[in-house]
Amino acid sequence: MINHDIDDLQARLAEGEVRLIFLKKDGSTRDARGTRAPDLIPYEDHPKGIKTPSIEVLCFYDLDKGAWRSLRRENLLGFIEN
User: Fold this and answer.
1) Distance between CA 14 and CA 18 in Å, rounded?
2) Measured distance CA(73)–CA(77) in Å, rounded
3) Which of 22, 52, 66, 74 has the fewest CB atoms within 10 Å of its CB?
């Protein structure tokens, strides 16, 4: 089942891997495997400092691309916990 709850997504990203479906800037859809769980992110890619989270943008580590990505919250189509 596809979930759309942003607060639930934030909690699940912090715990493990989540499949995100969202609209890209060009209007196409993207399916990504993401996380914010430190044990799933390579050490060299760990955040270097503390940033104040944005209420408009969601940041996550893309496990397929091996890089940090962000998306506008209104472009989130849903997510599924893996």
Assistant:
1) 10
2) 9
3) 52
